[in-house]
UniProtKB/TrEMBL annotation:
Stretches with biased composition (Basic and acidic residues): 225-244
Signal peptide: none
Keyword Transcription regulation: yes
Domain HTH gntR-type: 15-82
Region (Disordered): 225-259
Annotated protein name in UniProt: GntR family transcriptional regulator
Keywords, sorted A to Z: DNA-binding, Transcription, Transcription regulation
Organism: Streptomyces javensis
Keyword Membrane: no
Length: 259
């Protein structure tokens, strides 16, 4: 839910405003609607979302704790640039949980589970044919969540989702640049085939290779768009003359360019 309309509808159902604003802003950052390095205006966001500045400010503090924004007193708030250390940490958490879950899935996966996974694979192939990268990204999320559910650890998927926000920004950048949806779908299919065959060792190795593909992708993205990344553990202070407001542009477009 990244729209103001969705926020208002959820508020009418009694949901917490700060939580909803946090979800909207987090979705925009992870989805690259707000690109790394772009400025965020509390006033503009509050006006756009139809809320006071308080929930926006509180949400930005939460996002700073997640490493998704950097707040500079007397200067402003900026979407954090991607730090490879953060991507590596997120990948470590994701890989540990997903591979552990996959090992538990071997021996307990049923025909219905395999059929549901193959339905997702077919939908991914259709997204590839339609060059629907956003649709594929959502189907990819559903596929990995379903793998966790097959193992009996569906409740662990939100933990993975919370941990991998930095990783998801890199993944979303990689799809339009690498044009490798077919490769990813093939890797998904291999995991399902090996899981169905009960070959846990090979399924684990296949999943490991699949999840680590993001590291080579990050190298390619950084070579083309170094301005979206930061080498430093602490964020570098942006220049005033380079700041752009959240409502004013700096978005990563489908071809992988930043505007």
């Amino acid at each position: 839910m990244a729209s103001a309309e969705g926020l208002h509808a959820a508020r009418s159902r009694g949901r917490n405003t700060r939580q909803l604003v946090h979800e909207v802003l987090r979705s925009r950052i992870v989805g690259l609607e707000l690109a790394p390095g772009s400025a965020v205006s509390e006033n503009e966001l509050a006006a756009e979302l139809g809320v006071s500045r308080t929930p926006v400010r509180e949400s930005l503090i939460l996002l700073a704790d997640e490493g998704l924004v950097d707040i500079y007193p007397q200067m402003g708030t900026f979407v954090s640039r991607i730090r490879e250390r953060d991507v590596a940490s997120a990948q470590f958490i994701r890989e540990a949980l997903e591979r552990a879950a996959l090992r538990d899935a071997v021996g307990r996966v049923g025909a219905r589970d395999v059929a549901e996974l193959r339905v997702l694979l077919a939908a991914q192939e259709e997204a590839d044919r339609q060059s629907d990268m956003e649709g594929f990204f959502q189907l990819d999320e559903e596929f990995h969540a379903r793998l966790m559910a097959v193992s009996g650890h569906a409740s662990a998927w939100p933990v993975v989702g919370q941990a991998k926000a930095q990783l998801d920004r890199a993944r979303r950048l990689s799809l339009p640049m690498t044009q490798q949806m077919s490769l990813l779908i093939g890797q998904h299919r291999e995991v399902v085939d090996l899981l169905e065959a009960g070959d846990g060792d090979r399924a684990d190795e296949s999943l490991r290779s699949h999840l680590r593909l993001v590291f080579s992708d990050v190298e390619k993205i950084r070579a083309k768009h170094p301005e979206l990344f930061s080498d430093e553990d602490a964020p570098s202070r942006p220049r005033r003359d380079s700041a752009r407001r959240a409502g004013g542009g700096h978005r990563v477009t489908p071809d992988g360019s930043a505007h």
